[in-house]
Amino acid sequence: MNDQAGPSRVIWLASYPRSGALWLRALIGNLLVGDLQSSAQLQQVIPEIDATTGRRVALPPGRRTLIATRWPRKADTFASGTTDGYICIVRNPLDVMRSLFQFNRMEYVPANRPPDEETLEKAWQAYAERFTASAGHPLRDAGADHLNWVNHVASWRRAEGVPALYVRYEDLLADTAGQLKRMCRFLRAPLDDAAADRIVRKSRRDILQALEIHELKSRKKGLFYRPELEAALLRGARVISPADRPARDLPETVRADFMAAFSPTMTDLGYTLAPDAQTVAVSPEPLGEETVLPEGPDFAAARVGRIFKPTKVPTDLVEERS
User: Fold this and answer.
1) Chain centroid, CA 86 distance in Å
2) Domain for residue 135, yes or no?
3) 43, 304 in Cβ contact below 8 A?
4) Ramachandran class of 161: left when φ > 0, alpha when ψ lies in -120 to 50, beta otherwise
5) Of 43, 79, 209, 268, which has the fewest CB atoms closer than 10 Å, so is most exposed?
6) Is residue 36 included in any domain, yes or no?
7) Could you read off the pLDDT tens digit of each residue along the chain, which spans 322 residues?
8) CA triplet 224, 100, 124: central angle to 5 degrees?
């Protein structure tokens, strides 16, 4: 075992909302733990910090810690001196937009009755127009630039001097075991085929969905249930979206603006929007070169500390633990 003396180090698991972050955490969490039993356990093994949870993370001294985030990369936000590297998962913006609408759709329809399909379609068109105009998920609060998809991707893509691995959600979906082994090589924790297949089975969508259903029914606090989300949950908000829900078409009224807003970044990531603007082709080439973390200390879990109510993105969310 490596000497634990020295500064704390962070490996970030970065993603834009609704881009596969939970799946990524579950895969790596099952690697570290062996058999995750709850979403609260996953939050302990790989905590997440963002602008809404208000959690402070205390780092174990002299060890490497995995922390998930949906923020863009900013040196003043992430205490860059503690960063050893990061894995960034990306997803094409058309499906990100569809998934975000599905997750938040009850915010865009009348609350006094179940929405019919015509109401949902009108809400979808309005949402697509706002998403396209904002280049990302529109927020009510001013200054919330962390949900601009183009800026978010650019912030992680332009990081220099930090070991990084980029993973497309679509590649993870097509070859989960292969992408898991690629990530594990980056983390200096190589897997054989049998071990990778075992972790993939434990992290399947239906397994995570069953866990979500169980924790919602039992009101077990974790990533799927929190008392403050009760109203949204009662209206149907779910972290794991139903797999059989048909994708909504990109409205013709925003197709040209959507292409203008997202095509350059999509091309950089190996995405091509089909002529009908309803499907996305993915390059067969890996996203970026395969890299490996430098040798360093062993992994250890951080500790999620006190809760506060930030009025803006705090600059000191990461602190060393003595």
Assistant:
1) 13
2) yes
3) yes
4) left
5) 268
6) yes
7) 444 456 778 899 999 999 999 999 999 999 988 888 999 899 888 988 764 445 566 777 778 889 899 888 875 555 545 788 999 999 999 999 999 998 887 777 766 667 788 888 999 999 999 999 999 998 755 445 558 999 999 999 887 778 999 999 999 999 999 999 999 999 998 899 999 999 999 999 999 999 999 999 899 998 888 887 777 777 677 888 776 677 899 999 999 999 999 999 999 999 999 887 789 999 999 998 888 998 888 887 766 543 333 334 333 333 333 3
8) 135
Cα dihedral: 204, 208, 214, 218 (round 10): 160
Q: pTM of the predicted model, to two decimals?
A: 0.86
The CA-based angle 58-64-70, given to 5 degrees, is: 65
The whole-angstrom separation of Cα 194 and Cα 293 is 24
SS (H, E, C) the chain: CCCCCCCCEEEEEEECCCCCHHHHHHHHHHHHHCCCCCHHHHHHHCCEECCCCCEEEEECCCCEEEEEECCCCCCCCCCHHHEEEEEEEECCHHHHHHHHHHHHHHHHCCCCCCCCHHHHHHHHHHHHHHHHHHCECCCCCCCCHHHEHHHHHHHHHCCCCCCEEEEEHHHHHHCHHHHHHHHHHHCCCCCCHHHHHHHHHHCCHHHHHHHHHHHHHHCCCCCCCCHHHHHHHHCCCCCCCCCCCCCCCCCHHHHHHHHHHHHHHHHHCCEEECCCCCCEEECCCCCCCCCCCCCCCCECCCEEEEECCCCCCCCCCEEECC
List the CATH number of the domain containing 307. Answer: 3.40.50.300
Residue 4 lies in a domain: no
Residue 239: domain span: 9-320
